[in-house]
């Protein structure tokens, strides 16, 4: 029995050591530093701030539009084992650091917790309209956001805020099969991460007359959905893309990047969102995804198609057109 107990302890130690190693085995962002866009000049027609996952702040000097607005970023164990909720101090500090005062609208690309959980509180604090699916509206209702501060969209609608024309287009989530379905009633935090069901996904097109952008917040696509649309800059979600085969990646590129005639691609949703935004962004562990595979694929396809590739660091206000 003593030998058996020792053997079990050794097995647990080996398994624990392997998990620690695997969780810390990450691709390095450092060798991609040359792709980082520099800080934007104050005179840039549009400045964009990347805030992890697919949270993006677009500001043309008159009107600001926010995609998602996820700042709480609860840790891995808390997310896996406990109920989670918006972290008010983190949200407040993140909005302050990003220089967010007034936002016209918060567009949520789908209702998983890493996109929608904080959105009602961010909309409340910034005076924004919360725009998303009925599932996102139920996150807003559960968060106590007034009904008149919410706009439900189903895809195809174009909303105007200042010079911005923002069009939501039906899309599909990256096919991992987790937390799919609809949120059918107000979702009151704290709640399990798995309660934040996808609720349908959107591509978001933004155009202010001078600049055009596409935000693809998840590495999924709906065949033909973007045909006939145009965007010069694509913020391309690549979370999970490194785990798929070449055929999937090729089709994703054709349906999203090539379809809209992009001149530049900026990958997003590559970072480990169990880490707070007060720490440097790091790619997900190879156990879950492979950032290097995704980036090497993008580099090859971009070079073949004459498309530029850049990255954006967190908190940095950039001109996405710089150098084009």
Describe the structure.
The chain is built from eight helices and 14 strands. The protein has 324 residues and is α/β, with parallel strands linked by helices. Helix 7 crosses helix 8. It starts with a helix and ends in a 6-residue tail after the last strand. The relative contact order is 0.17.
The DSSP helix count reads 8
N/C terminus separation: 70 Å
User: Radius of gyration over alpha carbons?
Assistant: 20 Å
SSE order in H/E notation?
HEEEHHEHHEHEEEEEEHEHEE
Query: Regions with pLDDT < 50 over 5+ consecutive residues?
Result: 12-22
Gross geometry? globular
Q: Into which percent range does the helicity of residues fall?
A: 25-40%
Defining traits:
seven-stranded mixed sheet, 324 residues, 19% strand, 14 strands, 27% helix, alpha/beta
Brief description of this entry?
The protein has 324 residues and is of the alpha/beta class.
Give the arrangement of secondary structure elements.
Layout: H1 2-24, E1 47-50, E2 56-59, E3 64-67, H2 76-81, H3 88-97, E4 105-107, H4 113-116, H5 119-126, E5 129-132, H6 134-142, E6 150-152, E7 158-161, E8 164-171, E9 201-207, E10 212-216, E11 233-237, H7 246-258, E12 264-268, H8 291-305, E13 308-309, E14 317-318
Parallel strand pairs: 3-4, 4-5, 5-6, 10-11, 11-12, 12-13
Antiparallel strand pairs: 1-2, 1-14, 2-3, 7-8, 8-9, 9-10
Helix pairs in contact: 7-8
């Amino acid at each position: 029995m003593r030998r058996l107990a020792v053997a079990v302890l050794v097995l647990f130690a080996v398994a624990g050591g392997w998990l620690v190693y695997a969780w810390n085995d990450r691709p390095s962002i450092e060798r991609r530093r040359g792709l980082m866009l520099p800080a934007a000049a104050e005179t840039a027609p549009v400045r964009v701030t990347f805030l992890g996952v697919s949270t993006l702040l677009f500001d043309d000097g008159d009107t600001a539009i926010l995609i998602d607005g996820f700042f709480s970023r609860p840790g891995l164990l808390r997310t896996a084992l406990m109920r989670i909720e918006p972290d008010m101090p983190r949200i407040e500090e993140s909005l302050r650091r990003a220089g967010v005062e007034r936002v016209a609208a918060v567009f949520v690309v789908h209702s998983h917790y890493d996109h929608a959980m904080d959105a009602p509180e961010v909309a409340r604090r910034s005076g924004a309209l919360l725009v998303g699916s009925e599932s996102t509206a139920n996150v807003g209702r559960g968060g106590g956001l007034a009904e008149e501060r919410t706009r439900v969209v189903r895809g195809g609608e174009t909303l105007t805020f200042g010079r911005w024309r923002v069009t939501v287009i039906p899309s599909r989530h990256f096919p991992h099969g987790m937390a799919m379905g609809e949120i059918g009633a107000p979702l009151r935090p704290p709640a399990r991460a798995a309660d934040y069901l996808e609720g349908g996904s959107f591509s978001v097109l933004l155009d202010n007359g001078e600049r055009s952008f596409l935000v693809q917040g998840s590495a999924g696509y709906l065949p033909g959905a973007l045909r006939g649309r145009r965007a010069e800059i694509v913020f391309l979600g690549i979370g999970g893309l490194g785990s798929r085969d070449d055929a999937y990646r090729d089709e994703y590129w054709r349906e999203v990047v090539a379809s809209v005639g992009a001149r530049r691609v900026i990958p997003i949703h590559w970072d480990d969102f169990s880490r707070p935004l007060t720490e440097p962004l790091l790619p997900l562990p190879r156990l879950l995804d492979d950032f290097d595979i995704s980036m090497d694929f993008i580099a090859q396809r971009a070079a073949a198609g004459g498309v530029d590739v850049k990255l954006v660091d967190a908190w940095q206000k950039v001109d996405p057109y710089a150098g084009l």
